[in-house]
């Protein structure tokens, strides 16, 4: 029995292979995606990562697409942002087979409409799920009535890596920067495929870590939001005296940075840095940031003449808000960075290029830690997960304890956000996981001591070990 409820998430499809996601399911999803996404374009672009199951699943999906009378542009091995490039440049809907940072037994599909436009539950994914469920219940994929073409679709193989690299170089020019040495940890993921093409020219010397494409992830998980996965990168940056280090997740759409000391650079500081660069290029623009990014981000955007736009967490929401506001750039706390001139899609590689360009063109030739100092204004906890039996009850306890008082305000844009604007400033956000019995807490404050006090008090309340108001 194929249970699509278990694998179709809010923004993508993801599950264990072959128990939850197999070739038959991929083929049915291919027919459904052709029906929902490709009826106006006549073709889809399909790519996949380095996982052992990815080529077979991508081929099965492509067979479903062509069975529906829609052509396939097979991009082969790609990073997710390379797939977005192909979708944008070719103006075709796309499907990327990857489970991002998940362990080797997982795989999945990230879908987009033509021009790399996002697909989520409310923008096509729900329809694709329903259509695929019907197809599987009837014994397998068949051509939908809405796509009555007599002929099956064709498959064209196309390598987009060189064009993708050239497009990124057209957006961020590294020529003329001072020589830089950068350690790159690809985590055996798709950055091992894309980094040589993108960073292999100009004044950048790349020290590679784990560039061999291996979906078993023999060295560490390709999940740079986990500090444990950055240890090798940090050590190598210090040992080699490198200017900085870059870490990518498995499908290379997220990028994390460590400075010359090996210290992790927060995605909020990168969001602020890139926002300043984009506002210098397009003055007065809107900059989108999710509600968990540092309060320094909207402050810095405003100081540089931009308009900060706060939004909920999630790439579909970020992209939609960028389209609505005409924003030139958007950033998230999770290491996703979105660019108007990259079809509003996220690209870890483009964020890396901005970081290298800013450092390499700095007239004072400051190290990265000093360059970023103005963008790191407050103390942050990072995301802390708590397992709870009843997320709603735990959130209600927190709101009752901390949601009222002098200078305190609350909102429910995404979970519960409580803010104390007076000195000492602090705020926190508490959000339930979509898939697990978890509450995710992020705290920021004017100083480390205040942050720790608020963090500990809120965690005690979440876990029903009540303390006083911070």
From TrEMBL:
<keyword id="KW-0597">Phosphoprotein</keyword>
<dbReference type="GO" id="GO:0005975">
    <property type="term" value="P:carbohydrate metabolic process"/>
</dbReference>
<dbReference type="InterPro" id="IPR005841">
    <property type="entry name" value="Alpha-D-phosphohexomutase_SF"/>
</dbReference>
<dbReference type="GO" id="GO:0016868">
    <property type="term" value="F:intramolecular phosphotransferase activity"/>
</dbReference>
<keyword id="KW-0479">Metal-binding</keyword>
<dbReference type="Pfam" id="PF00408">
    <property type="entry name" value="PGM_PMM_IV"/>
</dbReference>
<keyword id="KW-0413">Isomerase</keyword>
<comment type="similarity">
    <text>Belongs to the phosphohexose mutase family.</text>
</comment>
<dbReference type="InterPro" id="IPR005843">
    <property type="entry name" value="A-D-PHexomutase_C"/>
</dbReference>
<dbReference type="InterPro" id="IPR036900">
    <property type="entry name" value="A-D-PHexomutase_C_sf"/>
</dbReference>
<dbReference type="Pfam" id="PF02879">
    <property type="entry name" value="PGM_PMM_II"/>
</dbReference>
<dbReference type="Pfam" id="PF02880">
    <property type="entry name" value="PGM_PMM_III"/>
</dbReference>
<feature type="domain" description="Alpha-D-phosphohexomutase alpha/beta/alpha">
    <location>
        <begin position="7"/>
        <end position="134"/>
    </location>
</feature>
<dbReference type="Pfam" id="PF02878">
    <property type="entry name" value="PGM_PMM_I"/>
</dbReference>
<feature type="region of interest" description="Disordered">
    <location>
        <begin position="132"/>
        <end position="154"/>
    </location>
</feature>
<dbReference type="GO" id="GO:0046872">
    <property type="term" value="F:metal ion binding"/>
</dbReference>
<feature type="domain" description="Alpha-D-phosphohexomutase alpha/beta/alpha">
    <location>
        <begin position="163"/>
        <end position="262"/>
    </location>
</feature>
<dbReference type="InterPro" id="IPR005844">
    <property type="entry name" value="A-D-PHexomutase_a/b/a-I"/>
</dbReference>
<dbReference type="InterPro" id="IPR005845">
    <property type="entry name" value="A-D-PHexomutase_a/b/a-II"/>
</dbReference>
<feature type="domain" description="Alpha-D-phosphohexomutase alpha/beta/alpha">
    <location>
        <begin position="270"/>
        <end position="378"/>
    </location>
</feature>
<dbReference type="InterPro" id="IPR016055">
    <property type="entry name" value="A-D-PHexomutase_a/b/a-I/II/III"/>
</dbReference>
<keyword id="KW-0460">Magnesium</keyword>
<dbReference type="InterPro" id="IPR005846">
    <property type="entry name" value="A-D-PHexomutase_a/b/a-III"/>
</dbReference>
<protein>
    <submittedName>
        <fullName>Phosphomannomutase</fullName>
    </submittedName>
</protein>
<feature type="domain" description="Alpha-D-phosphohexomutase C-terminal">
    <location>
        <begin position="383"/>
        <end position="459"/>
    </location>
</feature>
């Amino acid at each position: 029995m194929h249970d699509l409820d278990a694998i179709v998430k809010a923004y993508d499809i993801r599950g264990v292979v072959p128990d939850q996601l197999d070739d038959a399911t991929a083929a049915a999803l291919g027919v459904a995606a052709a029906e929902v996404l490709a009826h106006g374009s006549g073709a889809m672009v399909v790519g996949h990562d380095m996982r052992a199951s990815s080529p077979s699943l991508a081929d099965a999906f492509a067979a479903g697409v062509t069975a529906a009378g829609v052509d396939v542009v097979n991009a082969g091995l790609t990073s997710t942002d390379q797939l977005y490039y192909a979708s944008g440049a070719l103006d075709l809907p796309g499907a990327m087979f990857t489970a991002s940072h998940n362990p080797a037994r997982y795989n999945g599909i990230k879908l987009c409409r033509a021009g790399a436009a996002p697909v989520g539950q409310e923008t096509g994914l729900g329809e694709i799920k329903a259509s695929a469920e019907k197809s599987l219940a009837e014994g397998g994929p068949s051509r939908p009535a809405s796509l009555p073409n007599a002929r099956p679709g064709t498959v064209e193989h196309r390598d987009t890596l060189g064009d993708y690299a050239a497009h990124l170089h057209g957006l961020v020019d590294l020529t003329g920067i001072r020589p830089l040495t950068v350690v790159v940890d690809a985590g055996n993921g798709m950055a091992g495929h894309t980094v040589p093409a993108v960073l292999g020219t100009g004044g950048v010397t790349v020290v590679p870590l784990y560039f061999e494409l291996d979906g078993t992830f023999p060295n560490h998980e390709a999940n740079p939001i986990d500090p444990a996965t950055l240890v090798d990168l940090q050590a190598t940056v210090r040992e080699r005296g490198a200017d900085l280090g870059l870490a990518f997740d498995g499908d290379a759409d997220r990028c994390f940075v460590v400075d010359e000391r090996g210290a992790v650079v927060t995605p909020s500081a990168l969001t602020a840095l890139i926002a300043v660069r984009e506002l210098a290029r397009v003055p007065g623009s809107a900059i989108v940031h999710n509600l968990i990014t540092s309060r320094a981000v909207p402050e810095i955007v405003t100081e540089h003449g931009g308009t900060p736009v706060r939004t909920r967490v999630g790439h579909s929401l970020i992209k939609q808000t960028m389209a609505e506001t005409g924003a030139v750039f958007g950033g998230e706390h999770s290491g996703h960075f979105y660019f108007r001139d990259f079809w509003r899609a996220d690209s870890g590689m483009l964020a890396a290029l901005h970081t290298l360009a800013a450092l390499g063109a700095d007239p004072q030739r400051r190290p990265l830690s000093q360059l970023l100092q103005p963008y790191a204004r407050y103390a942050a906890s990072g995301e802390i997960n708590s397992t709870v039996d009843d997320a709603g009850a735990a959130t209600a306890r927190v709101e009752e304890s901390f949601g009222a008082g002098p200078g305190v305000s609350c909102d429910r844009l995404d979970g519960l956000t409580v803010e104390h604007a007076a000195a000492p400033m602090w705020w926190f956000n508490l959000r339930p996981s979509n898939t697990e019995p978890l509450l995710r807490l992020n705290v920021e404050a004017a100083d480390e001591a205040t942050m720790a006090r608020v963090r500990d008090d809120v965690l005690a309340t979440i876990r029903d070990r009540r303390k006083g108001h911070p």
